[in-house]
Specification:
The chain has about 550 residues and is of the alpha/beta class. It has 14 helices and 26 strands. Strands 10, 11, 12, 13, 14, 15 and 26 form a seven-stranded mixed β-sheet that branches. Helix 3 crosses helix 4 and helix 8 packs parallel to helix 9. It is globular. The protein starts with about 25 loop residues before the first helix and ends with a helix. The structure holds flavin-adenine dinucleotide (FAD).
């Protein structure tokens, strides 16, 4: 698309320096490869290479001249980056098929190499060095863009639960966005009246194509962002994977890499619980630790590289089976059919039985401790409740920006927390461990300001200041959607393999179930949703990969 040169983006804009491998330069050999795969064409100042709302179908490399990446082209003209010769354009959305939210505008005349997206996929799949360079840069760019606040705009009050729901959905999906708070942004009301939106209709989302969404649900927002695979699912796939936490991503990745057709379904965002962990320190191969969302984002891209499809956000709401064929009904009305199913729907944290908890949920009470929550309470005192590793990690992470109390019922932190973490917590001056403590009451009008805790030995009640409570008190499985069709233990976790006996084996007609197979042949359970599983990322991924081996066996059985 050609346009008149934009004065704000004239030649001479300095090139953005590289940050952590986000803006690498290609060498002559790499450039030559892309020249062969695409076409070199001249470009003029003002020419638009890609625009918000589009789904990118080309990968651009700058041969000469320069290209600016701009937020709000023609209106705000906020320059996010400038790329000169031998740099490539784009970010994660190009690889995962999300809608573009920034403009790529030529500022200095020159030439670009335009490579069809399909050819880029070929390079990424075949060449490890190029895959590391390009995917690494795309992920680093996404992290920068989230930090800068770019992309779609969300206008609402920070006290509204719907605003919090939308922001949490965006954060879980690692989508950059610009937050405009009606409570303290002077321009917010003017912006709303310019759009013809009443304050009562907020929160509103201004999508990248200009579409205005009034208090959208997850499916509407996901559609506007272009999340997940858009094409309809295949008529009958080899494996349906329900849930895209570490176990589901592991199953999808291994199945796709072994040539099985895979349809994944995810209710909220790829990554599951692990995606909400600020730092996973015990996953093999990452001696310095890795953030949960980086680990799972890499896995998501990797599964896509092998051809796994993922429909998201879409919740599995029912299971219908006949021998050798299973149908999963989704909340968006779509039905996916497969020869086998892997259930990897994981678990979620329990809610403590405390009055007024729901009033503050999402706005003072949180079940995850990521950058998004930490930003909301930075500097103010916070409390974490729970004695397991996730509580310890959350306390360590939050203590970087806020004084933190860690409330545990018992007297010994080492009872259910790994030793390395107990040592870190105990050495940390910003964390106060409150043993024998139980939460009794939350205080505050619109915002949480304090809570009362009880010493369960002396019954003494103490009021402590806290603007946020982080809850990590054990988990319950996501199995309600199965409506009792598969056998579970008392806690609702799915029974598999040798844990099944007697009548629970009725559907197997005398054959023993495979390891990880539920009470229905061809349906497997992996990760936290499985009875007796070890609640760890490594074991979830391991079970996901093992299930694929068993699926081959089930599909080969007469
Ligand atoms: C804060 C935190 C920190 C942690 N830190 C560590 C750590 O350092 N090391 C470690 O080893 N483990 C850690 N864990 C535990 C680890 O994250 C889990 O054991 C692991 O994520 C389990 O993976 P999973 O895929 O089985 O389930 P989950 O991660 O729970 O993923 C399940 C997925 O299924 C989706 N889903 C649920 N129901 C449906 C439905 N009906 N339809 C479609 N999708 C559905 C969910 O949205 C979710 O994305 C941590 C957990 C938390 C919460």
């Amino acid at each position: 698309m050609s346009a008149a040169p934009n004065d704000a983006l004239g030649a001479g804009l300095p090139e953005t320096p590289d940050h952590n491998g986000a803006f690498p330069r290609l060498d002559e050999e790499q450039l030559e490869r892309f020249r062969r795969l695409g076409r070199v064409r001249a470009v003029e100042p003002g020419e638009i290479l890609f625009a918000p709302g589009e789904r990118g179908d080309a990968f651009f490399v700058v041969e000469s001249g320069s290209v600016a990446i701009v937020q709000g082209y023609g209106a705000e003209d906020r320059i996010i980056a400038v790329h000169g010769a031998h740099r490539f354009l784009g970010e994660l959305s190009l690889i995962v098929g999300q809608r573009i939210y920034l403009t790529g505008a030529v500022c200095e005349a020159g030439a670009v190499i335009e490579v069809p997206l399909q050819a880029l996929w070929g390079v990424v799949a075949e060449d490890k060095a190029m895959s590391d360079l390009i995917l690494g840069a795309f992920m680093a760019r996404r992290a920068l863009l989230i930090g800068l606040g770019t992309g779609i705009k969300v206008i609402g009050s920070r006290f509204s639960s719907d605003s919090r729901r939308l922001r949490e959905f965006l954060a879980r999906n690692q989508m950059p966005y610009i937050w405009i708070d009606l409570e303290d942004d002077d321009q917010a009301e003017g912006l709303l009246s310019g759009l013809g939106v009443a304050a009562a209709e907020t929160p509103v989302v201004i999508a990248s194509d200009g579409q205005i969404l009034r208090n959208p649900n997850s499916a509407e927002l996901g559609e506007a962002l272009g999340l997940g695979t858009r094409a309809p699912p295949p008529v009958l796939c080899d494996v349906i994977v329900v849930g895209a936490g570490p176990a589901g991503l592991g199953a999808a990745l291994y199945a796709a890499s072994e040539g099985l057709s895979v349809q994944g379904v995810e209710a909220t965002a790829p990554g599951g619980q692990a995606g909400t962990s600020s730092r996973i320190e015990n996953y093999l191969g990452f001696p310095a630790g890795i953030s949960g969302h980086e680990l799972t984002q890499r896995a998501f891209v990797q599964a896509g590289k092998f051809g796994a499809r993922l429909t998201t956000p879409a919740e599995a709401v029912a299971l219908h089976s006949e021998p050798g064929r299973h149908e999963i009904e989704l909340s968006n009305g779509i039905r996916v059919t497969g020869r086998t199913v892997v259930i990897a729907t994981g678990a979620q944290y329990r809610r403590p039985q405390v009055a007024r908890l729901d009033e503050f949920e999402g706005g003072g009470v949180y079940y995850a401790a990521t950058q998004a929550e930490a930003q909301l309470c930075s500097g103010d005192p916070v409390a974490v409740i729970g004695g397991g590793n996730s509580a310890g990690q959350a306390a360590m992470f939050l203590s970087e920006t806020s004084p933190c109390r860690l409330l545990i019922r018992g007297g010994d932190l080492g009872k259910s927390m790994s030793r390395y973490l107990v040592d870190q917590v105990e050495r940390n001056d910003a964390i106060e461990v409150c043993a024998h403590s139980e939460l009794v009451e939350l205080h505050g009008e619109r915002e949480l300001v304090a809570m009362t805790i009880r010493d369960n030995r002396s019954d003494e009640h103490t009021r402590i200041p806290a603007t946020a409570l982080f809850v990590f008190v054990g988990a319950s499985p996501h199995t309600e959607w199965l409506a009792g069709q598969l056998e579970t233990d008392k806690g609702g976790f799915l029974l598999t393999g040798r844990e099944l006996d007697g009548d629970q084996l009725a559907e197997f007609e005398g054959e023993p179930p495979l390891f990880l197979e539920t009470s229905r042949p061809g349906i497997f359970a992996v990760g936290d949703v499985r009875s007796g599983s070890i609640k760890r990322v490594a074991s979830a991924v391991g079970e996901g990969s093992m299930a694929v081996r068993l699926i081959h066996e089930r599909l080969a059985a007469p």
